[in-house]
Amino acid sequence: MSFTEPQQFSSLENALTSLFGNDIKIIRTDRVAGGDINQAYRLSLNDGTCIFMKSNTKENASFFTAEAAGLNAIAHTKAIGTPRILGSGVDDDKRCSFLLLEFITAKNRISNYWEIFAKELAAMHQAETAGFVTEGIYGFSHDNYIGAKNQTNSVQDNWVSFFRDCRLKPQFKSAAGYFDKADLKNIDRLLEQIDDILVEPKHPSLLHGDLWSGNVITGNDGKAWLIDPAVYVGHAEADIAMTELFGGFPPAFYAAYREAAPLQPGYDCRRDLYNLYHLLNHLNLFGRSYLSSVKRVVEKYSR
Ligand code: ADP
To answer: Which residues, at least 6 apart from 34, have a Cβ–Cβ distance to it below 8 Å?
Structure first.
């Protein structure tokens, strides 16, 4: 990659002394609520600094190398705010893995918060992507995670094939036990027809990949910052579709985004198919309550 990888440390103590000097101590640890997958903390240090730490088991250390690589890619576009990565690592004594980030202290939102967010997101979507893939166009240099589930980023030259092979197919495979014969027939038909439903983008874009409101936080400058990404290079409309899945952002966001980066005609007809990936992921992670939504979308696109 054409940019530096985030640092990795052999213990939390090693991370803190490397970053802040030998005299550094944690004087207070507070839990931060809100995450689904990891434990989150605010660490207050004896020099007055506060840092944000996520932790998980040692076995899940790759969650954090992947998250750091994603935040690093977003930061590399210089288009939109994201917390500074201090590093990640595994602590054998504490039997945990960890990710350390700049602590975001939410300020008041700036005026035109949504318009500026939309413009910055559009700029991220327009940034050069060649450095994020070793060869080919769509995918990412490493596999990563969508929630706690593996996300395959094998590089391809064709967006529609990438979305079929690396997004829908692995999720359908994991969810196979939920489907009856008729469903499976519909799924086959949908996958066969996908070239007639999705379109190639005008240019590839770095995507956040999991862009719902919980992953947009008001940053230290009062603007919208992106956290907890599942980045890859793809079609920008997949990110926009996801913003609409769980309630959506205000109309000002969509108007400003379309002004900065007009969506290709027919986006509305493709949105639910992009979001099928996330519905399937929820079915796989959280169970049957997502099955009827999944079936509805499969039926819609397999006629
Ligand atoms: P998970 O990976 O478990 O989904 P999140 O990334 O959503 O965790 O973060 C958990 C909580 O911590 C959320 O409430 C989020 O708003 C908050 N948070 C995330 N990153 C930071 C940060 N750098 N500074 C302060 N709070 C943060």
So the answer is: 40, 214
Q: Which domain holds residue 210?
A: 113-301
Query: How many Å lie between the centroid of ligand 1 and the Cα of residue 35?
Result: 6
Ligand 1 first shell, C-beta below 6 A: 32, 34-38, 40, 52, 54, 83, 101-104, 214, 217, 227-228
Domain match, 164 and 87 both: no
Report mean pLDDT in 10-residue bins for the chain, 303 residues. 76 95 96 89 96 96 96 97 96 94 91 98 97 94 96 97 98 98 97 97 98 95 97 98 95 98 97 98 97 98 94
pLDDT value of position 269: 97
How many domains, the chain?
2
280 with 148, same domain?
yes
* Length of the chain as a residue count: 303
Q: Judge if 91 and 138 occupy the same domain.
A: no
- The residues annotated with a catalytic role in the active site are 210
Q: Report how far residue 129's alpha carbon sits from residue 1's, in angstroms, rounded to the nearest whole number.
A: 11
Closest CA to 97 of 227, 36, 9: 9
Centre of ligand 1 from the C-alpha of residue 55, in Å: 11
Claim to verify: residue 119 and residue 199 sit in the same structural domain: yes
| Minimum CA distance residue for ligand 1 atom 27 | 104
Ligand 1 atom closest to 105 (CA)? 25
